[in-house]
Design brief:
- The protein is mainly alpha-helical.
- It contains four helices and no strands.
- The two termini are 30 Å apart.
């Protein structure tokens, strides 16, 4: 795997960003748009996925990154649960529900795969590189 120097280059972050935009668009129409608390809650969860990927990457340590990826994966699950609520309240159609569910499930699988990769990797992160040199 090539070295990635910026979180923006991570495929999972790019996908999380795309899905966050999708959630923003879904929640920008009535009646969803008028349910301020629910709208803001699902938008925050969607944003949390990409934000936790970015924050974990910027911590420059493998173990912290894995922890933040786990939080991001949890937020993806939260969005999926909220999508069911949106469907049950007739805010989105069944087609919109299925499309969003499929995409968030795929993202969660990709995050899980990346966690697995990092857990097997011997690279511990940038912040550990210079510790053993005196």
């Amino acid at each position: 795997m090539p070295t990635i120097n910026r979180f923006e280059d991570l495929q999972i972050w790019q996908l999380a960003r795309e899905l966050s935009r999708m959630i923003f668009e879904l929640t920008s129409v009535n009646p969803f748009n008028n349910d301020f608390r629910f709208r803001d809650q699902i938008r925050a969860a969607a944003g949390s996925v990409m934000d936790n990927i970015a924050e974990g990457f910027e911590r420059s340590g493998q173990y912290e990154f894995v922890n933040f990826l786990s939080i991001a994966k949890g937020s993806a699950g939260e969005v999926r649960s909220q999508l069911y609520r949106a469907f049950d309240q007739h805010y989105i159609t069944e087609i919109q529900l299925q499309n969003a569910q499929d995409r968030y499930s795929n993202l969660a699988e990709q995050i899980a795969g990346f966690i697995k990769y990092l857990n097997k990797s011997e690279v511990r992160g940038q912040k550990f590189r210079d510790r053993n040199t005196d």
